[in-house]
Records
---
Amino acid sequence: MADKKGRIIDSAIEVFSEKGIDKTKVSDIVKRAGIAQGTFYLYFSSKLAVMPSIAEVMVEKILEEVKQHIDQKASFSEQLKQVINIVFKITKDYRDIFALIYAGLASTEYLQEWEAIYAPYYEWMSVFLEDARNEGVIRQSIHPDQTAVLLIGLIESAAEQAYLYSHGDQDAASLKKQELLHFVEHALGLAK
């Protein structure tokens, strides 16, 4: 069963990317997925109901990349830089999918699901910050849970500015990443 749901999500990503949200029909998605239309409705009530699942796939991808590519032996500052680089790279590589997610979620009642989708990512960042606070690397007054939400939002917003809302100029993106890192280090009171 989960395999069919995954095929629907993958198919929806492809068809939405090709046709756009408005022109896509459920019949286009199921045809691409190779399933019956009734099967689609076992998992989703409408084409827009797929958007939270697409968002969930992308959040899982970010978290998986972060967990796999963070050098545990590196300094907190270097690890923070690695997180920023990963988010920027994924945003650049999947620019069309992120644009699709934001367009789809903004036009549906599913926007409230965003926090639940992000919960594992927030949790990882909270632990990352709490460990740094406990080691005396960042200021003691941070609230890890709230700061995690703010930090993820800030990093993603900067990546989106670099790749979704502009032409993706690499020099501008590099400068944005550098400024973002300095800003975050300062806000966290990173002990130098």
---
Amino acid sequence: MKGRIGAGMMAILLAFYLVLVGWRAVLFLQSGAPVGIAIGVALLVLPLIGFWALVLEVTFGSRSARLVRLLEASGELPVETLPIRASGRPVRDAADADFPQYRDAVDAAPEDWKAWFRLGLAYDAAGDRKRARGAIRTAITLERAAA
């Protein structure tokens, strides 16, 4: 819950920032000077990219949270048994040792979104965020195609 509140606050602050930058862009465009117009166009493009990125992240978060709820409801969410550091992150060696079972499950059933989601959690525990997000995106795609 704490993570959702933090993400919501950051999204609100980013939206506020994007509105302010967008307003400045309009003012630069209205100046009529070539440099002002160029700055105004650049300031319009940046908020659009920021808004697009915000929408992607919020969508990813809500869809992955939905999959967590589905796995939790069916009792198939993996139980965290890994030793953790003081920071709350799993010990890397233990996560690496636990990883092959999830990789093998995906190899055995490449169309199973549940296996992909668990693989994403294993990647995250091992500290590989890029692959974790990729595996979870695959799980989201497979689950949506099956629904």
---
Amino acid sequence: MTTEPAAGPPLRTDDLAALGDELVRLQHRRTTVYEGTVLEASAWRILRVLADGEPRSLRMLAGDLDLEQSTVNRQVNAAITAGYLERFEVPGAASRLVRPSARGREAYEHDGRIRASLIQTALDEIGPERSAGLIADLRAFNDAWDRAIAARAEG
């Protein structure tokens, strides 16, 4: 069942399309493999989730990555084969958990430094004032988007 948008001012389709285009460009940055990095995109994303130090089951990873569990299973198996992840048993748990291996942590830190350097270069180009404004505006936009989603879910 779909719900129609709430009544209000007309949608600014040019603004929405332009924002959509920029969000797609930004999303693409998350999956790009940059020169000098060692991880392919799916291993990077998995290690990024696991960087909080909490091992996860495949089901948990699938939720965190917003992917089908079968897709995550293939990606995890590839990362295990490459030596970036390891599975381990937890007494009393129904499924094994996944965590970064030492090689995976090292590769993640290596690639993270490259990505951070690229982001820093871009922020330096636009300057400290615009950088601070960008961060504040993205936070405000994400907060407003979360509120819009919550309001729509409430009915």
---
Amino acid sequence: MGGFLGLAAELVAFRRLRNKRSPVIYYFVSSITLGMLLENIIAIFFSTNFYSYPNFFRINTLRLGQFILNFPDLIMFSISLTALAILAFIIYRTKVGMALRAVSYDLDTASLMGIDVLRIIQLAFFLAGFLGGISGVFLGISYTLYPQLGQMVVKGFIASVIGGLGSLEGAVIGAFLLGLIEILLIKLVGSAISPVFIFCIMLLFLLLRPRGIAGTHVQEKA
């Protein structure tokens, strides 16, 4: 229910911002603000207690030679790779994906080419919400459920900044690098201070390389 309310509110806010031709940063601010609003609404109705998922898997560990692997993590990793492959196929190998890329580059030109911009935007929100729902289930299995669990979306934004906004490959690279950096920082400075260093790293990327690792500059030609 909260996901549908968030999606509807985000669509309304996005339409208003698009009609006013607001800067791109406003979309991120509106998303974070609406996320905080939904978190507090959930906390009001369901309290701030911690909840746990039922045990979906009878096998918790898997031994491969000298290595012991977490079986739920393997399942989640496999499903994540499958979802990522399907998303990459849609974006780069279908007409819908071509329309998505065209709309993300230039709304007006895409509209002049006959693309239903509003439908494409709704599709993008649907795909984002669907993938976000899968991620939420995985987080619930790995951790516990609480209203502020959605704050981990900020890590996704940081990974996108590091890898390159608008680049699927960059988002994957940024996510892996962010995970490695976070583990290293937790070992060196502890889990309480590591978010400060991660935020500073994001600021450095924004200042020194705003396009991220895999991002590229696009030069418009008259």
